Amino acid sequence: MTGRNLILQRIVGALYVLAGTGKFFPQLESVEGRLDDASEANEGTVISGPVDWLDRHPTGVMWFVAVAMVAAGLALLWNRRGLVIAALYGQLLMLVLFVVILVSSVPEILVMDAAFFAAAIYLLYRYHVSPGAGVAASTGPSREAR
User: Fold this and answer.
1) Most buried of 36, 62, 83, 136 (most Cβ within 10 A)?
2) Whole-model pTM?
3) To 10 degrees, the CA torsion angle through 52, 100, 107, 11?
4) 24-40 tens-digit pLDDT
């Protein structure tokens, strides 16, 4: 992993931590409001049942999404190859689900999530073309060199 890729990884990680933390503050983003809007916008569609169920459990959804985003962000910041790859695949799945659920009520989600999706795909590509050990990229002198 090159320096530029590591910088991108850490920026994405920090943004996930911030976004996940922001879920706890309705002034920043009301998960309950988003779910209400999504439920209304998806009424009568194939996904209306699952979206209505999510809408009835906004606190659980908020906790799940917040913890998942913060954990993924911390994994990206901690920079352990296996955790980074797992976090990126998990975030790709979450982003797809966000778009499917929210695009009817918040079309601008496509722009923001497309950027995160592209970053995750790019980073996964870089990880899969550059095999490495347990640490994603060198972050300083090795223990043996100290």
Assistant:
1) 136
2) 0.84
3) 120
4) 999 998 999 999 999 99
